[in-house]
Amino acid sequence: MKIRSLLLCIFLLPALLFAQASAESAMLDSDYYTATDANNRTLKLAEKPSSILIAGKAGNMPANALFLFEEVAEMDLTLPKTDQGLGDFFSFIRPELNQKPRISQTASVEEIASKNSDLVLMKATHFESIARKLDALGIPNYTMNLESYEDWKTELRQLGKLLKNTSRAEALIGLYEERVQYITDKVKTLKPQEKINVLLLQAERSDATFAYKIAPDGWMQTWMVETAGAHAVWKGANKAANGWSTVSFEQIAAWDADLIVLVSYKDASEQYQKAVMNSEVWANLDAVKTGQIKASPYDMMNYIQPVASWILGLQWLAKQAYPTLFADLDMEAAVRTFYQEFYHIADEAKLEVLLDLYRTSIASNSK
């Protein structure tokens, strides 16, 4: 039976490869630029989009994906505010974007339409509020989800089709897969008793009050911890309808994780780490006693979120969880090569700025 299955695969493989090559050739030869978006709509453009507007909140996510393609260098772009409080990555690599006013994240459909862009790009969550209304006006628009590893692979392929640059899309997916496999190959050697318990908390501050939240089970942050080979101790505890859920200190103490990672998407993570380490309330937690309260890494965006640099967050998490297993993982080299390979940044001065920001973000972890 096994021999028969193997022979079947051998005979079918050339046919599958031929079909894939034929589909690729048909796409490249077509007069249209066509792709299917996250809401399962097929967009068909007569010309390659040269002016793109990114609309709505969380615009940094589709912008991250778009900027991975070389075509973006020649595009006329209109961006919403994409600074999460740590700096604006897109104007950093394309300074001329500072000369063009940003559109509000809450801009009306009428304002978006008035920009006369070839294409409006947005998060899939804006389908009802923006995309459907733009459809009614006959304005080409395209949605992206980008909330998981599978989303990133699927949607990079579709974006590659839309730009007729599928070779770049496949190269990007290959780069992600190589880094992910490096981690999964190592952590699969761990015995069950060797896996540590990790608690990832989003930290927020309002005046003198600190709040801590856990991610939903299906979100990328949870997947990252598990892919790094650890137990996500909060899994199953988020009862919010959608999004992060606030947890009490009593619950945090009950989990008593081996490693606690503090993430902030609005400001520097290390201030929350300092608050925890200096708190008498937290003092009896094992992670505090062993110095395993870690500020999450970032440069102009935090790595522990579903933007393109999530792969750096995954690599960092794996090294924090199992430093001996990942002793050969040089995070500074990983950051440098990420920006060289994914964003084609060759300017040493720019690379050094990003590396300095990364070094600063995790400097308190070694104190």
UniProtKB/TrEMBL annotation:
Key words, A-Z: Signal
An annotated GO BP: cellular response to iron ion
Pfam families referenced in this protein's UniProt entry, alphabetically: Peripla_BP_2 (PF01497)
Domain Fe/B12 periplasmic-binding: 41-325
PROSITE patterns: FE_B12_PBP
Keyword match Signal: yes
InterPro entries recorded: ABC_Transporter_SBP, ABC_transptr_periplasmic_BD
Signal peptide extent: 1-23
Protein name as it appears in the record: ABC-type transporter, periplasmic subunit
